[in-house]
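[recover] target loaded
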């Protein structure tokens, strides 16, 4: 059976893509069960993204690109023109999966453009081209994480505890991770670091996924209640904070998992460096500031329940914004695969991403 995957995949991998379809590691079941579910159609892929079988901005982008290939494989179009029109309809459908992570829209736009630019290719060839492009998006993300790791490792202290929020690891990317990739690279370089993982209510990505990943790669990890972060910082038990991002605006404002903003304020108050690690595909220079970033509101049920246990009285309401926006002035540096970006972000983001600026 044909398997599509990068030449040197990470040891933790959110997918298995074969000619049968896309097998997704069901992240809702971690850390208790490692079970893959099979998606054969683009609609199944959209449902899996929406229901957080797979999550994390770069992973959502890669999954959507593969979902578009699954959609393309089932199109009945005979001509190139009809194929492209139908492909765009599938892309529009996949784009409705979740609103905040820009990697989703970035990946779909890149895939559609790739097909449009192949002016001589018919439907059969276009499917092959799209399959190769989705694999390239996956491979590029994995190598971006490894490069980010090398740049970011230098910023972390020689020893101590690094606090992270949500899960910005291999499960959330093409492999290796953004924020967790930086920690992995620093440990691989000999730094003596441990991880403090915010549990990240309500979905518990920190308690379930970050702790699971760190255990797999052998990095000491302690899960903490979200509310413990400020106390631990004030007691000198946190040497740096590093998080991922779902979308970064042109002025450096960062949308990431709800609770990130509070951590950044606490880090500033306690004079602790606050780093964001994200690939260039997470930047949205069309958003001038964080105010323009759409923030997903998820079901109140996720707040009413912790696992299968109802924790609120019946008859009360709950709010569940899935992300918040951290203002650029609270961010010490943004680590990308092109280098480390420091303030002023409005000037330095385009300069570093275009490769024009020297970075350290
Ligand atoms: O709701 P999620 O689990 O998709 O949110 C994920 C995050 O907020 C991550 O920190 C972000 O996507 C970066 S992943 C490298």
């Amino acid at each position: 059976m044909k398997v599509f995957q990068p030449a040197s995949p990470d040891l933790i991998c959110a997918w298995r893509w074969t000619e049968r379809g896309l097998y997704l590691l069901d992240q809702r079941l971690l850390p208790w069960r490692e079970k893959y579910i099979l998606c054969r159609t683009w609609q199944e892929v959209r449902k899996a993204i929406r229901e957080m079988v797979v999550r994390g901005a770069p992973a959502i982008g890669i999954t959507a690109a593969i979902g578009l290939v699954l959609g393309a494989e089932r199109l009945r179009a005979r001509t190139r023109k009809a194929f492209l029109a139908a492909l765009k309809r599938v892309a529009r459908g996949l784009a409705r999966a979740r609103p905040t992570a820009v990697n989703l829209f970035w990946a779909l736009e890149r895939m559609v453009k790739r097909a449009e630019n192949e002016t001589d290719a018919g439907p059969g060839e276009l499917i092959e081209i799209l399959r190769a492009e989705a694999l390239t998006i996956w491979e590029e993300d994995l190598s971006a994480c490894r490069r980010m790791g090398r740049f970011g490792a230098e910023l972390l202290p020689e020893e101590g505890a690094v606090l992270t929020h949500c899960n910005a690891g291999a499960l959330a990317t093409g492999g290796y991770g953004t924020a967790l990739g930086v920690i992995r690279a620093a440990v691989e370089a000999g730094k003596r670091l441990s991880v403090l993982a915010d549990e990240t209510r309500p979905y518990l990505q920190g308690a379930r996924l970050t702790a699971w990943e760190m255990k797999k790669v052998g990095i000491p990890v302690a899960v903490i209640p979200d509310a413990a972060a400020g106390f631990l910082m004030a007691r000198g038990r946190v040497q740096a904070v590093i998080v991922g991002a779902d979308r970064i605006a042109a002025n450096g404002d960062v949308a990431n998992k709800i609770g990130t903003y509070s951590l950044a304020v606490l880090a500033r108050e306690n004079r602790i460096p606050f780093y964001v690690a994200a690939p260039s595909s997470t930047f949205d220079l069309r958003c001038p500031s964080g105010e323009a970033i759409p923030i997903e509101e998820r079901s109140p049920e996720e707040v009413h329940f912790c696992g299968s246990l109802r924790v609120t009285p019946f008859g009360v309401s709950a709010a569940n914004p899935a992300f918040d926006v951290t203002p650029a002035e609270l961010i010490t540096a943004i680590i990308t695969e092109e280098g480390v970006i420091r303030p002023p972000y409005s000037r330095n983001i385009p300069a570093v991403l275009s490769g024009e600026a020297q970075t350290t």
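[recover] notes: The radius of gyration is 20 Å.
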